[in-house]
Sequence to fold (100 residues):
Amino acid sequence: LHLVFSYHPICMVLGFIVCMGGGIGAFRTARLGRVGNKRMHVIWHTTAFIFVSIGLRTVWISHNIVKAPNLYTIHGILGLLLCILFYAQYVIGAITFLFT
Fold:
């Protein structure tokens, strides 16, 4: 049980801090040309998308194992809202990336 939940903070930090920060930095500071910078940006944010999804799923699984409610704290509600906003931003960015 605790092994499943312990992946939650690791995945969230890797996704939101490390990978999203890398994506922001890659788009502006990498010297790969416009197309290369966009590709690095997409790779970083896709990796963030994967880590955040795994982190969200692990906390959901661990709560279901102990039969605890999933959204009973402000941390859980705001965390889910942040993930929804991140997913929406990712989809809108992917659509913009494909058509520009």
About this structure: The longest helix spans residues 33-65.
